[in-house]
Each structure stands twice: as C-alpha cells, then as structure tokens.
Amino acid sequence: MRTTLDGPRSRLRAPLIADSIIAVVLTAGSLVVIGATSPRIPVRLPDAAAVRAPDALNLVLAALCTLPVALRRRWPFVMLAATAIPAWALVALGYDSGLGIAGVLILLYSVAAHRGLALSLAALVTALATSAVSASVRPGPVSWADHVVVFVVTLLCWVCGRAIRLRRAYLAELVQRAHRLERAREADTRAARAEERSRIARELHDVVAHHVSVMTVQAAAARRMLDSDPEVTRDALTAIEEMGRTAMAEMRDIVGVLRTDDPAELRPQPGMQDIPALVEQMREAGLRAQLRIGGERRGLPPGIDLAAYRLVQEALTNSLRHAGPAARAWVTVRHEPAELTVHIEDDGRGDADGALTVKGKGHGLVGIRERVALYGGILHIGPRTGGGFEVRARFPLKDRP
C-alpha cells in the first residue's frame, strides 16, 4: 500500500481541506446567528419586511449559502451563482440569511482572484444583487446608508481579489523573464565559448603552421648542406632551434589565456610593428621577400593589428611552402586615414603541387577569411596577374578619429 500522497495531489488537496474547514465554520456560525437573532414567531417590524421564525428549511437554505465556499478555488463563479438561488429563496420566504452574505463575499473574492476580468465583473454584479437583497431582510429598518455599506464592502472584496490576481500575474511574468534571461545568458556563454575556441584554434594554427614550415625548410637545407658546408648546416640548425623556442613561447602565451585571468602575466600579441622582423625571418628561411610600407603609420586597434599580422604571416608561409625555391615575395602595407591595406604576392608556381586552392579551403586561408570578416574587411585570394599568387585585404578604420 502507498502511505504517502504524490506531490501534485497533496498540493491540490491542501487548499480543498482548508476551504472545507472555512465553509464548515462559516456555516456553523451562520446557523448560530440565525438561531440567536431570529424571532420564535413571525413578526413584522416597523419599516421592515416580515421575518419568519427559523425552521429546518431556513437552516438548509442558509447552509447552502455558505457550504459552496469549500469549492471556491475550483469552481468559484459556479459556486457564487449557486449561492444566489438559496439567498433569493430566503428573501422570498422571509427567512433570516444569517452569514450568507459572508459566503457571497468570499466567493466574489475568489472569482476576482482566480478568473478573468469579464467573469469577475459578472460575479461582481451577481454579488451586489445578492448582498443587497440579503441585507434588505435583516431585522430592523434598512436605510440607504446600509445599502452603501454593503456596496462598498462588496466592491472592496472584488478590488482586493483583482489586486491579488494582478500581483500574481506580475510575479509570474518576473519569474518567466528571469528564466528567459537565464536561457539567453547561457546561450551567450555558449556562443562566447565557441568563439573563443575558434579564435584559439586560429592562433594555434597560424603559429604552428608558420614556424613548422620555416623549420621544415631550414631542416631540408641543413640536410642538403650537411656534407658539403657544415657552417651553413650549423646556421640552419641554430635557426631551427630559435624558431622552435619562439613557437613554444607563442603557444605558451595562447594556451595561457585559458589558465589565467590576469592579462598582465601574458606577453603582448604580435602586430604590424613586427612585420619587418617577420619578413627578415622569411629571408633567412630562403624566401626572397621585400617589404614596402606606405602612408603615415598610426596606432591600430589591437584586433586589427593582430589580424593583419597573422594574414601576412600565413601568406608568407604559403609562399615559402608552395611558391618554389626561386620565388620572390612582396609585402605591401599602406596606412590610410580610413583603412589599412595589406597586399602579399609572389611570382612562384602557386598551387601547382595541389597543396593550395584558389578558393581557399585550407585551414589557414579559412582562418584568414574569418579574421578579415570579423572586422568588416574585404579579402581577395587568388592567382596573380603574370603568374604567382596574391592575398589582398582591406581593413576599415571608421571608428578612428
């Protein structure tokens, strides 16, 4: 056997038990009031309706005016309409209604607190009519002030119910809004994580591809000159060692972003001021590269500064790997007030070995496209007029003064 109630069922039964207790207490009080205040024989008071002595029918009708309170949360309007019938019967038969008006007010509050505006207005009209009729048969004269009091109390119960409903709806909206904001924050967090992973992947690819390519070329040169020219071999091995250390340092800085929240612990990222050193490094690796810088040099936004440097690095790396041993490369950087133009070209065989495509579907060229698009730039990658390959990018600087 089950000894405990399910959670939802227990939550539904708890209000029903409480409302049933209220209904029983209210009914008992109503019957006591009827027995204590009603005359034993029919009388007619001055300026008042005739009041009959209480009997079994009077008690049953009075109980029917208060017992529906037990179902006020489930069917509030139906119960309110149900109380109107015995209330009007009490008036028609000349009986005292006891505390029947209290049951009407409780049901009116329940309709206003748990149902819509149209139904609550209908309940208000029903309650006003029932309360006014019930008040008119109380012993003693009934003045206009009594009707005003009944009207004000009835309207106050309705207003309180509507206020509770509006407050409940407002709190529910706040909860829903908090849930929506939480979901939006989680979505933004996931998007930021995905963007950060993509950024780190681009950085790692650029660093590894560039330095490994240079190290591969230097190792090939050292292998060819190992027997004939040991001095050249020694220089190539020294360059490989320095290149490996540089690659490890840059990768350590990139991965360090994931391990620390203090950017001061990390070295600054490379930028356009490091382009001359990069070109010189490619010359040492065997690529005959030249650098031309035009326009007035100005400070660049950090993101564009890094993106332009990585673009030059990736393009020169591709030239070193695919252009051929006798190829030449030119790097042209032009600073203008509204944009930064970077142009890298070579006169080698391009993608004759099938390692590079004009559409740029390799990881390096995809990374270049993502970097340029991130800052609203325009990128062109393709064969160069007269042979070779070129990469041209324009970064807008509209936010600069």
Automatic annotation (TrEMBL):
Q: What's its catalytic activity?
A: ATP + protein L-histidine = ADP + protein N-phospho-L-histidine
Q: Could you tell me the superkingdom of the organism this chain comes from? A: Bacteria
User: Pfam families, alphabetically?
Assistant: DUF7134, HATPase_c, HisKA_3
TM annotation in the entry: 12-35, 87-109, 116-137, 143-161
- MF term (GO), any: protein dimerization activity
Q: What is its EC number?
A: 2.7.13.3
Keywords recorded for this protein, A-Z: ATP-binding, Kinase, Membrane, Nucleotide-binding, Phosphoprotein, Transferase, Transmembrane, Transmembrane helix, Two-component regulatory system
Q: Which GO terms describe its cellular component?
A: membrane
Q: Where is the Histidine kinase domain?
A: 310-399
Is Manganese among the key words of this record? no
InterPro entries cross-referenced by the UniProt entry: DUF7134, HATPase_C_sf, HATPase_dom, His_kinase_dom, Sensor_HK_TwoCompSys, Sig_transdc_His_kin_sub3_dim/P
Name of the protein in question:
histidine kinase
